[in-house]
Amino acid sequence: MRYLSTRGHPDRRRFCDILLEGLAPDGGLYLPEQYPKVDAATLQKWRGLSYAELAFEVLSLYVDDIPAADLKALCARTYTAEVFGSDEIVPLRELEDGVYLEALSNGPTLAFKDMAMQLLGNLFEYELNRRGEQLNILGATSGDTGSAAEYAMRGKKGVRVFMTSPDGRMSPFQQAQMFSLQDANIHNIAISGVFDDCQDIVKAVSNDLGFKRKYKIGTVNSINWARLLAQVVYYFAGYFQATASNDKQVSFTVPSGNFGNVCAGHVARMMGLPIRTLVVATNENDVLDEFFRTGVYRVRAAADTHETSSPSMDISKASNFERFVFDLVGRDGAKTRALFEGELGRAGRFDLSGDPVFAEAAKRFGFASSRSTHADRLATIRDTDKRFATLIDTHTADGLKAAREHLVAGVPMIVLETALPIKFAETIVEALGHEPERPARFEGIEALPKRVVKLPADAEAVKAYIAQHCDD
Ligand SMILES: *Cc1c(COP(=O)(O)O)cnc(C)c1O
C-alpha cells in the first residue's frame, strides 16, 4: 500500500514514512492510493476476533513496511483490558430500542483519543528505535489531546513531549491529569495566554525549519494518518457487537470537531463495512453541519468560534475534512487543491451547492448531520440519566441528540461515546445538581505534586526551553 497527497503531489509514500510526518509536501493530507475492500468471507472471519486481533487485521491491509509479527505484537501490547478497562475494549450497550452507545473512553485519559494515541505511542517507539532516531513532539492543547498524547508517550524511548497549554484555562481535573505525570520525557509548559497563543507558538516553531530539523520536532495532531487508521477498527468492532450477521446495516453518529473520528467511519464504509448513514454531530460551532446541509464550507474566524460546554468540538476549521472532499470530488487532486488552497485561501469558504458531486455526500457516501446547543446538551444529559440511569458527557450528548434525528426503523444506530462525564464535571453539575462519578484511579489527583513550567507567550522562550531539555 502506498499513500498519496490529496493535492495531487506525484510522490507515493509508505506507511512508516508518513507515520512521523505531518502534511504532505504540497500541503495536502495523506490517504491510501485505494481503500482495500473487505469481502463477506473476511467480514465473517473478523467477527470472532478479539479487539487486538481485529486491529492487526485492519492495519495489515494498510501497513506493509512493518513485519507482520511485529505489527501483531504492537496491537496486542496496545489494546489490553488493563489499559482499556474491559476485554471488549469498546463495549457496546443498548440504551433504548435500536440505539446503542459504543464506549470509546475507558482508556488512560477518559476520552476516545486514547484509542489511537496509545497505538501511536507504540508505533513511534518501534519506528524510532528501528531508525536509531529521536523525536521531540511539540503540541498545543486545550485539554483532551495533550493528556492523551502524554499518557501514550510517557516513558517511551526516543520520544520527548513538550506540551503547551493556556495557563489556568483547563479544568482542574484536566490540569491534574497532565501535570501530575512525573516521567522525565514529558514536559508541561503553561503559557500565559489563551489556546490560540499556544497554537501560534507551535506554528512559529514548526516554521523555523533550521530549529525543526536540528531538534527533530514532530507533532501528533489529528491529521496523522496512523491515528485515523487506528480509529477505523472500532467501527468494525461496534458493527460486530450490534449485529448478529453481516447482511445487516447499521448507522453511526459521531460527535465531531476536526472530522478525524467520522473520517475513520468513512474509511470503514469505503472498505465495505455495511454502514447506512454516518451522522456528523456538531455543537454551536457548526461548520460541518452547515456543509452537509447546504454545500457551503465556511471556516470561522477565531473570534466567531464559540466557547461551549462540549469544548473538544469547538473548532472553526475541520483539519481532516479535506480527506473526505478529495473522495467526494472523485479523488481529483487538482480540484481539491483549487478548493482548499485557492478558494478557501482567498475567500475563507468554498461552495459546492451547485456542483453535482454535492448530492453524492448524502447519496453515495451516506453522510447526514445535526447541530445542538448548550440547552440541548443539558436536556439530553438529564433525560438519559432519568430514563436510562446512564450518565453521558457533553460531547456524547451532542451525538445522542443528533442520532435521534436520523433514526430509521430496523437499522441499529450506534452513538460513539467520546469522553466520560468526569472530564466535564461543571456541566454535569449544572444539568443534574451533583458531581459525576470519578474512576478510582483518579481519586485525589488534584492534590498530587505538579510538574509544569510557566513561560510567556513567546516562541523564542519555548525554543530555548526545548533546546535546554533535549539532551536529558
Ligand atoms: C477530539 C474530540 C472530539 C472531536 O473529534 P474529531 O476527531 O476532532 O472530530 C469529540 N469529542 C471529544 C470528547 C474529543 O476529545
From TrEMBL:
Entry-linked Pfam families: PALP, THR4_C, Thr_synth_N
Keywords tagged on the record: Lyase, Pyridoxal phosphate
Residue stretches making up the Tryptophan synthase beta chain-like PALP domain: 92-335
Database matches in InterPro entries: Thr_synth_N, Thr_synth_N_sf, Thr_synthase-like, Threonine_Synthase, TrpB-like_PALP, TrpB-like_PALP_sf
Segments forming domain Threonine synthase N-terminal: 2-79
Entry-linked Gene3D superfamilies: 3.40.50.1100, Threonine synthase, N-terminal domain
Keyword field contains Lyase: yes
Cofactor: pyridoxal 5'-phosphate
Root EC class: lyase
Domain of life: Bacteria
Listed EC numbers: 4.2.3.1
GO molecular function: threonine synthase activity
Keyword Transferase: no
Family listed: Belongs to the threonine synthase family.
Protein name per UniProt: Threonine synthase
Name of encoding gene: thrC
